[in-house]
Every structure is written in structure tokens, then in C-alpha cells.
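Limitations
The C-alpha cells in this dataset are predictions for the assembled complex, not deposited experimental models. Users should treat interface geometry with appropriate caution, especially where small molecules or nucleic acid strands are included. An illustrative entry is reproduced here so readers can see what is and is not provided.
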Amino acid sequence: MNRRHFFRSALAAGAAATGATVAAGETRVAGVVRPRQDGEPGLFSPLRIRGVTLRNRIAMSPMCQYSSEDGFANDWHLAHHAARAVGGAGLLIAEATGIVPEGRITPNCLGVWKDEHVPALKRVTDFVTSHGAVPGIQLAHAGVKASRHRPFHPQRGRYVPEDEGGWLPVGPSARRYREDGPVPRELSVAEIRDVVAAFASAAARSVAAGFQVVELHFAHGYLGHSFLTPLMNERTDAYGGSFENRTRFLLESVRAVRAVIADDVPLFVRFSCTDWVEGGWTLEDSVRAARLVKEEGVDLIDCSTGGATRSADIPVGPDYQVRFAAGIREEAGIATGAVGLITEPAQAEAIIVDGRADLVLMGRELLRDPHWPHRAWVEVGGDTPPPIAREYAWALRETRR
Ligand SMILES: Cc1cc2nc3c(=O)[nH]c(=O)nc-3n(C[C@H](O)[C@H](O)[C@H](O)COP(=O)(O)O)c2cc1C
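Predicted assembly:
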């Protein structure tokens, strides 16, 4: 039996358990096989955005590692990204990275607020690029949710006081997110402009550090999202009140970043597409905002949800956020990324084949298994060669079609 035949037989044996017959190029969705039409993209179809081509539609979702000192990347960041690059993801988006020191969630968050950060980040992006993945970065300001203890600190999530290395958080309004800690300080208009400028200089530095995709964090109750949502923005000036005013900081940040990155660099924005509570930011708001940022040169909306209030009742389950990616893609005519409890190859393949999103972002499942993309390729097949480093591929030839 040659290797190709072996693979097809193994796949068919797996399919027998679900009562389905599977051939290469077909998609298994909950035991049902739906053939991909000619030209229809699947999980393993390349995705070209501006000057960048991803080898497949699997992205590592940004995940804080809380492992930096003074914002610097180190061996941990190299290991974290290297494993997923070798494991075959198309795009790796580095964690929420502070554009200013006080924009970090914890004192241990990654940063890109000074030129000295660039060489250590470049070490990470060089490795990622050399193994066929595209390095991206999420630029962030934590706003009123800043200056917290990291999750593996005994006081996880609690406010870090100024005399212990913390700082006074700032936001659109002097409104606490949780009861502990001081009341945050409301940003002045001049300070808002400084933050916009900090997004731009962080983006320029990120590109210099080898990142090929820039994502702006406007989700999860951090500064960007807190301007958008009426639940956190109580301003009465040009940055609060109407939808137009609440999206002003978003549009100014997008314009400032787009102006400093080259035309061939893709720009993503992560939204919390709903606050999941009455009176909060909604899918309809996200569609309107997506149309606006598309006009300003944003290429993809990364569709998450929640984070503005602790009282939201979120119906967490497989695919629970995918409908937001599908809705924005359909209504705003912009590429989207789906994220949230996407764990199975057939599930991910179906999201792409059905046209519900252009990219699947995965967080925890890629922590569990950095080689998930290769496993998924074995299961659902696709247009591209197996996403696995040549150093391993030669030894694992029996998994090639
Ligand atoms: C350890 C960890 C850190 C995270 N850090 C970030 C982050 O820096 N930025 C962000 O937008 N989301 C962050 N998230 C959310 C993930 O990007 C993702 O949206 C979420 O985990 C749902 O995807 P999953 O079910 O595949 O894990 C984090 C999640 C985890 C588990």
C-alpha cells in the first residue's frame, strides 16, 4: 500500500465510525459530508489580504502571556509563537501589546511603546516567518481595566497599587469596571489624541519588528471598546453620546495607523460585536462601525464579544460568536474572522466553506495542541501541502495524502 493509499484508507476508516464516506476535498460536518464546490475556499485554502498571503485560514487568536518585564519579549514569547508556527497555523496574532506602559492589563504584559522593544520582537517574528506562518500583532490599551495582577498571581485580577508597580487607570469616563481599586481618570481630549498617536507609533514599530499584520484591540472592555459602548462611555463631548461621537476614537486610531503602515500591510480590528446586555453595543452597531472602518482601509473584522460589563449573561458554547462574523461579513461586505470555542476540524472547515467567515481564530485549542492545524489537515484535507515543518514532515510521511 503506498502512502497516499494508506492515508485515504485511514480517513475512510475514521469516516466509517460516523457512517460517512469521505474523500479528499470533502468536508465532514457533524457526520455529514458536504463536497466543496470548485473554487470554494476551505480551511486549507490560502488567504491573500493586501500584500500578505496566509498559507491557510487558521489563526492563533491573540492571547496574553503575562510574562514580560518592562514590556520586553523574551524566550517564553519565542517558544509560544515558535510552537504554533511549527504547528502549521497560517497567522499568529501576538497578544494584546501595550502601546503605552499604562495601557497594559498587568505590569507583565508585552509592550511596543519604545524602540528598545523592537529587537526582541524581531527575534520572534523572524522565527515565525522562517517557518511559513505570518506574524501579526494586536495593539492595545487596557483603559479602565489596566493595572491588574496577572492570572497566575495569588491576587489574580485585583488592582495593583501604584506603590507595587501599578498605575492609575484611565478611560473615556471616570467609571470603575469593578469595585476594587481607585476610580479611573477621565482622559482629556489632548490625552485622547496622544493615545491615537501612540497607536500609530506602535504600529510603525511593529512593522519594523517584522509583524506583517496589525490588529487594533477594540474589544473586551479595554480602551477602544470602552469608547464605543454606552455602558462605559459617559462623555458629553465630541467622543461620547451619539454613535458618531463614540466611534470617533476608533476612526481616528484607524486613520492614524493606516497612515503609517504601508499599503500592503493588512489592518484588522477586533470588536466585541455585542455587549450581550440591553442598552449596550449591538451587532447592528458593529455592522455600522465595520462599514466605516472599511472605508478607512481596514481589511478584516475579528469578531469577538463581551467584556464591557460583568453582568452579561453570555451563551457560551461551540460557534457561539460565529454568527457575528457571518452577519458583519454579509451586511458590511468586509472579511471577517470567527473566534470562540472553535475546536474541531470539521467545525472550522464548515465555517469557511459556508462563507460565515474568511478566517478562523483559535485560542485555547491551540494552547492544548500547537499541532492542531496538521491534525486538521489530515482530517479535512485541502488545497495546500501539509502545514508542518520540514524537520518533522519527513518523519511523518504516512500522514501525507
Ligand atoms: C490565555 C488567554 C489570553 C487571552 N488574551 C487575549 C488578548 O490578549 N487579546 C484578545 O483580544 N483576546 C484574548 N483572549 C481571548 C482569545 O483571543 C479568544 O478570543 C478566546 O479565548 C476565545 O477563543 P477560544 O475559545 O478558541 O479560546 C485570551 C484568551 C486566553 C485563553
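Some entries come with short summary sentences. For this one: Residues 277 and 312 are 6 Å apart (CA to CA).
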